[in-house]
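Note to self: user wants both folds in one dump. Writing first protein now.
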Amino acid sequence: MGKVKQKGDSKETGGSKEKEPLKNEWETSDFLMAQKRINRAAQSLKLDDNVIGPLKHPKRSLSVVIPCRMDDGSVRAFQGYRVHHDLALGPGKGGIRYHNQVNLGEIAGMAMLMTWKCSLMNLPFGGAHGGIRLDPSALSMTELEKVTRRFTSEIIEIIGPDQDIMGPDINTNEQTMAWIMDTYSINVGHTVPSVVTGKPKSIGGSLGLLEATGYGVSLCTQKLLSHLGMSNDAPTVVIQGLGRAGTGTAKNLIKAGFKIVGVSENSGGLYNPNGIDIEKVKAHYREHKTMDTYPDAEHVERDSLVELKCDVLALCAVANQIHAGNVDKIQAKVIVEGANAPTTPEADDVLNSRGIHVLPDILSNSAAVTVGYFEWVQGLMRLFWNEKEVYDRLDTLVTRTCDQVFETAKTHKLSLRDAAMRIALERVVEARRLRGLYP
């Protein structure tokens, strides 16, 4: 009797063992989480895999090695990535991040997220993203410039104002965008301001872009609470993360009559039911680099801040902050995602079953890419708008999209995330259908 094949054995073909197929390089936990979102939306639209299959993977991904001569004369090699997820609606649009944990799966997942964000806002962009695996705090400004310029040169064939437009993301800023713009322009022989967004105003940046994310998160929060009938006096807010997005969100919500009762930074969190002075907290943190010595609030563990009781929990830090391990402890009535992917799909299901509304990232933090679109248009036209014009246009687009998401959720009995994904996916699928399959 022949050997009974056990589970896990390699297949045998012609005397040789056939290895199990490898997974795609980008299939990390971050990317697989992004795929779960599209699967849920596809079920809502009753789309089969012939339609959805290509959208479950990036259209193209470029991995490059970036050699750099360091200040001490040594040469180090850094890993860089640029990914295009889908370009059916237009050229790619997405940020570039510098972090020592950057990998292809993370970048591919972010590119997919950008596809849905641009589609939901009805912008003429596809989804893209990029990053370099490095610790920017360990490099000098000269070294960062060299790495940025070499990275731009390595990916220059797939970027451009009609191909892929980069913007700032984690640990990149206006200066990074200026270096990218200059490097690209030198290589093509003329100045091309619309190859990036988020650049300094003196070389074509748009008014309002730096403040756009916080402003947009605040605007979406106000629209949602009004829609839910929760616009009572001074709704309480807890904000995780006091970076640019979190600080902007806090300031705009305070202006709108909200009360900030909890905040956190890397070193810890603060809670005061009577309200927190954001400017005072920021000044203290700049001076002491810690929350531990702040006198006018109760100190809480950074990771416990999301469990505080409040009307609104604004997640403005990093990904995967609400997950299966802490979702049952969430006491907020509404969660607003100021960061990208701060809630896992598993936590989403629990929150939905508990009646906690989650305003998804592809809507709530979409103001930055929307004003980035305005900057791209202004650069192409060589005609610039004043701040009022920028914010009037932003208000119109954000308000219209909020109304569409709320109506879709009501009509199809969906969560806000599933409603937003349904709208975004439907537009991309329609564009792909009309363009056809080549060849």
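First done. Writing the second protein, which came from a different request thread.
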Amino acid sequence: MSDTPRIKLFDAHFHIIDRRFPLLSNQGYVPEYFSCEDYLERMQAYRLLGGAVVSGSFQAFDQSYLVDALHRLGPSFAGVTRLPSSVTDDDVLALNAAGVRAARFNLMRGGSDEVNELEQMACRLHDLAGWHVELYADSTALRALSGVLMSLPAVSIDHLGLCDDGFDILLELAAHGVRVKASGFGRVKMNIQGALQELYAANPDCLMFGTDLPSTRAPRPYRDDDIDIIAAALGEQGLRKVLYENAVSYYRMDSD
């Protein structure tokens, strides 16, 4: 990653796991702590200009850790939270003022309730605060949801959809305007370079890089040379779009 420090980076997917805030066991798993300070130290070799703090299943509907993290990291960082359908408009607007820009639906670990709430919540949150929704789901689940996803105002899919099965649907969604996170390379089961090239060809604006730090539950954690995979697949112009430009626009952040 010799050229990484000179390239602007917006890390569109990482987690903060702060010991001061509650954590819940999810499917028997509780992650190790990873504070804002831990994250910034890990990223000090990069030209990091912002990012998106993403809520995990182990944080349930706790907003306190996220608001605190956004305050500590500063206004160039956005939040991606998990919300119950009962959330009030006032609570959404308060989170928006704190820097939250999206809601996450964890279809991998959240079950059918997440699917049932997706369409109504996505439209409501976009109309109210301009938020998009983010889905943690493998591509095999996208076929049944593709009609709904294409009807929503703004959607992103985590970790390249995780697998080859259903990748054709992911390509259709990307061409339609759905965003895809180039993240979690240690989780996916596919030819990553080939997938990046096909997605970029379908829609050059769709891919957004994320480290996925601290890579909770991933078979292989994030490595600095993951960025080299993107560079090899897409070249310098594509790398700049994926590492910074696409996500800064999507998360409605200043592009200074």
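Dump finished. Worth passing along: The two ends are 23 Å apart (CA to CA).
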